[in-house]
Design goal:
Layout (H helix, E strand, L loop, with lengths): L1 H13 L3 H18 L12 H14 L3 H8 L9 H17 L3 H14 L1 H5 L2 H14 L5 H9 L4
Amino acid sequence: MGAMNLVLAVINAKEGNRGRTHEHIDRARGIAARLGEDRNDFDTEFGPTNVEIHAVSTAVELGDAGLALEVAQQVDASSLSPERQSRFLLDVARAHAQRRHVGEATAALLESEALAPEQIHDHHLAREVIRDLIQLSEPRVPESLRGLAERSAVG
């Protein structure tokens, strides 16, 4: 039931339905609070941490970078799989990019890349953020961002 609410939150966020997104996140928070711990039953990685990671992701999807970054500061994803941590950092990078924080976004992408390189090199959202960051920082693109773009085949 909790994981289903997270899926519904993501769907509603992609549709731009802020109210329904927050309803599903709040329901998932309640279920996670009753569960009281992060678990990985049937590879769902459901629990309080994963709910907050989804809160960050849906906030970014809705264009609310401030909320995303505020929630992200409270998240310790270190107990989750490297892939899940990497995706979280990608969402943090997206939020920073929405705020035009090139350095912070690049740092989050590099940390994500260190955990799960394929998450950054092959993910369309990562490539989109990298392109945006390059445009924001031109004509002086930081070397670390330029290297990330090359490794991700962003041209």
